[in-house]
Amino acid sequence: MVAPLTNGGYRNHCPACLWSKHVDDVPGDRAAGCRGLMRPQRIDHRGRKGLVVVHRCVVCGFVRPNRLADDPGQGDDIEAITALMSGRG
Questions:
Q1: Which tens digits make up the pLDDT trace of 18-74?
Q2: Residue at 52 is within a domain
Q3: Sign of the C-alpha dihedral computed for residues 20, 22, 52 and 88 taken in this order
Q4: How many domains does the chain have?
Q5: What is the pLDDT of residue 1?
C-alpha cells in the first residue's frame, strides 16, 4: 500500500519499484489516452526540484520527469534509486 506523503506533496509512482502510469498530458489533467505503464529510465538532478526519476511510457514513448519522494513516512526506495543510477534498474 502506498501511504500519502506527509509533506503536503503527492506521488505519481510506486515507491518500491518507481514505475508510474501515463494518465496525464499536463500534470493533474488525467487526459492521457494511452494509460500505458511508465518505465523509470534514469535519475536526474533538476535545480530546485532536486532528484527526479525520468519515466518513458512503454506504449507511446512519452517522457516526463517526476520528483522523487523524500518522505519520512514512506520515501522512495533507496535501493531502487541507486540501482537505476548505476544502470541496474
A1: 999 998 888 778 888 899 999 999 999 988 888 999 999 999 999 999 888 877 778
A2: yes
A3: positive
A4: 1
A5: 67
Does position 89 have pLDDT exceeding 70, yes or no?
Answer: no
DSSP string of the chain, one letter each residue = -PPPPTTS----B-TTT--EE---SSTT----SS--EEEEEEEEEEGGGEEEEEEEETTT--EEEEE----TTTPPPHHHHHHHHTT--
Residue 58 to residue 49: CA distance in whole angstroms: 25
CB neighbours of residue 38 within 10 Å: 25
Residue 15 lies in a domain: no
Q: pTM for the whole thing?
A: 0.82
Torsion of CA 39, 78, 75, 65, to 10 degrees: -40
In a domain, 28, yes or no: yes
Give the structural domain span for 79: 20-85
Cβ neighbours of residue 8 closer than 8 Å, sequence gap 6 or more = none
